[in-house]
Fold these 2 entries.
Entry 1:
Amino acid sequence: MAVLAFRDTTEENKILCTMNVAEDFQETFDRITPKDNSIFLFLWHVVHLILRVLYLALEIFQTVESYLITNRIVKAYGHLNLQRVNYLGVVIDSDEARETAEVIQLLEWLSDIGIKKVCLYDKEGVLKKSKEVLMERFNSVKQSNDDSELDALLNIKQIAFEFVSSSDGKEAVAKAANVLFKKYYSDGDTEKPFFTESYLTDALKTLGAVELDPDLLLVYGPARCHLGFPAWRIRYTEIVHMGPLKYKKHGLILKAIHKFTKVKQNYGS
Amino acid sequence: EEEKRSGVVSRFLGELNITVRRFLFRVMSSGPIPQHIAFIMDGNRRFAKKWKLEEGAGHKAGFLALMSLLKYCYEMGVKYVTVYAFSLDNFNRRPDEVQYVMDLMHEKIEGFMKELDMVNRYGIRVLFIGDLNRLYAPVRVAAEKAMEATAKNTKTYLLVCVAYTSSHEIPRAVYEACQERSGRKDGKEEEEEELIKVVDLEKKMYMGVVPDPDILVRSSGETRLSNFLLWQTSNSLLYSPKALWPEMGLRHVVWAILKYQKNYHYFEKKKKQA
């Protein structure tokens, strides 16, 4: 029993009693906690409810922040050093990528910001399949929005797209492996070279993978996860979570790009 | 007398600490607990600069943080923990710093070997992942001894990635898969359909011995993966707390697991679609 008995005045007994409290703490804890875990489950739900409220508060804050940034009330993100963003990658969760209108609005925003090269990725290839539809609707939106002929003439807002899916990721490496096998292993007992990164890159090139690595990867989905974007292309890519596609925020994109331009990488050294 | 009393108080607080953690663990494990967490231990040098310590002290403080985090993960029920201790890119650092880290690793592995009884009692299996031939000889020898000594343990796993990058691991897996396939071909007739598939490559990856990580944590708030587990993190939650590695603690492990639990159904759906 956890009894603090200080009837004895000797030091040793006082110490012994306190030690008993420490050990009995464990015992008492084991005794009062129910065996059926229902109170812990209840507390778990409470914790996750609090978490949901916190995320909701964050969402509201970000919406307000995005509004302020887009309308230039907050001036910090006015001047973006876009030179640093050579290649922007966008990962969209495949289920969300089916919302073509949302995708087109996102592409419009990116084009307005001044991004020149975008790589669009979704795992199942939904974006690849709707490539023609997306390009057609994007170009028509652009043409109707071009409010100066000069713009159109100089192709100021011209933007290049690359569509990628999981078949360009792990499966492409498997295909490259077969290419390398045919090349180096089809002739008997000659010395086989050890495959380094450059062998793999060359094999991938012959299969058509010639594009650069993205500098910045924006992830649209419920969670921050690159969802299988071709592994060798994201070695040093900054990965930023933007939330679900239908709640995308223009100001948040500006903020992400701004933050990216301030990053300094050591590349390991 | 003061010492005796403070000794008792610190024991009491220690017991309280453990009890609070056990309570926390029981609440957390009402939901799904991740099987595998990976850590990028970034920020040791910044920590040393921040607190005006001498250079190596950041790495030492980082090691202490690692021990605490391992304890919390295993207490929470995580079976596999992977840490990025040394990248192939890190060989580009100043030679004296590389030497310092190699010496520190050697010292820690030797220290670990002294506690082997406790380690085997907890059932921790240690694996060193990467191009071990690039390590300095004494470290490599110590690492191989540690791997051998814990080979029979199966309760929890600690994977230490040294001399590792994904850009080395992936082509190497291709090479090993080709070697294996050419070995098989020698005994058989020419079979065009025997192509190398993704599963063949995954078996040959260094990390093929464990399931993919559920969460990848990178300290210091940096949002990139720096060539770590690029292949294995297709369905992993990426978490980047701002704390420097020596400042990481229980709250970060708890927060990571809470985030994982929040997105659990989403990730399970993604894994099934693969």
Note: The first strand of chain B starts at residue 36 and ends at 40.
Entry 2:
Amino acid sequence: MAPKSSAPTQQTTAIQTLWKAYNEQTSDRLKFIDAFLFFLMLSGIVQFLYCILVTNFPFNAFLAGFSSTVGQFVLTASLRSQVNPENKNEFKEVSPERAFADFALGSIVLHFFVYNFLG
Amino acid sequence: MFSLIHLLLLAVSAQASLLTLQSPRFSVSDPTGTQIRSEPVSLVQKSSTPVNLTANNVLKLTFQVVDKETGKGVQPHQTFLRFYDEQSGEEGIQPVRVTPGGKAKFELNLARPPLSLPPTTDAPLKVSLIIGSSQYSPLSAELFDLILPLSHPAPVHPDEASFHVLPEIKHTFRPEQKLPPRVISAFFAGLVVAPWAVLLGLWSQISPRAPHLFSPSILPFVLSLGAFEGLLFWYWVDLKLGQVLLYGTILGVFTIFTGKQALASIGNRRLNRK
């Protein structure tokens, strides 16, 4: 790993190395899930900014939307960590299919509660 | 049967004995003892002039209750003096003690008035005598009118002040919350939708393969998941809670089967390849 440096002569910084390694070493499926995670994060941040900057008037709507992004992020992150082949030793008793089934069930329950609260 | 009893009672009362008063008399005297007014009382006709009592006067009423035919003294079961105010409708009942021989004496001393006197109004009190007995037919006679001095106002209860209507509560409410102006709303709506564009762009770049997505073992599962999402959206728009739970349970049972099938096939494929 290249040491962290800010000298202009070094072409690569640690972040660039990290990004390069990520791009090369992560499978497409995991990248697919990561894109979804990134999307969820952006969505949650934008909603939160709106609530702070403009108004929290339909407060239940804000809570429903924000918690939907946060909850979905948690579920997807756990799916990603359980499905990753490199983590197989951590999750011996949970097969990737079981992880996906849990993810699906959790998502549906989350969506139900969010729709309930959305009003 | 009922009317027969009525007839019997009527017959009995027609035969019942009558009571009368012997030498009924009332007198008004002042504290020193001198008599201001003294008259006999008639049962048939009310006394024409009302009795005027001023403070400290004493009204005495004496009579003897006798059987009309035999003239013997009778002690009736109930002997009352009724003070009735026509204007206010109040009445006071004062029992009169009668000796076994039938003699009765009633004294009204305004220095210590009986509690049963109603408060004084402009109209005079009608005083009547009511006698009840089980062996004789009842007797009720108006004796005279009574004019009393003004009564004191009723004493105020110490807790009186707390038994009145409290002032009406005027609630103040927070002003209604308003939506922000449409421009800002539209701008932020666009901003919130923007991450979807980011997601679609990223996904198009990555585009992982799903080779067996539409195979018959997996497709039903995907479709039932999609159906769940559709059901929830329908619930948001239209359905009630009970309905969505019912449909969700049915769909859930279906999804369990398709899911088992789909995930088992994927797992087998993964393990076989490994």
Note: Chain B touches chain A through 35 residues (CB under 8 Å).
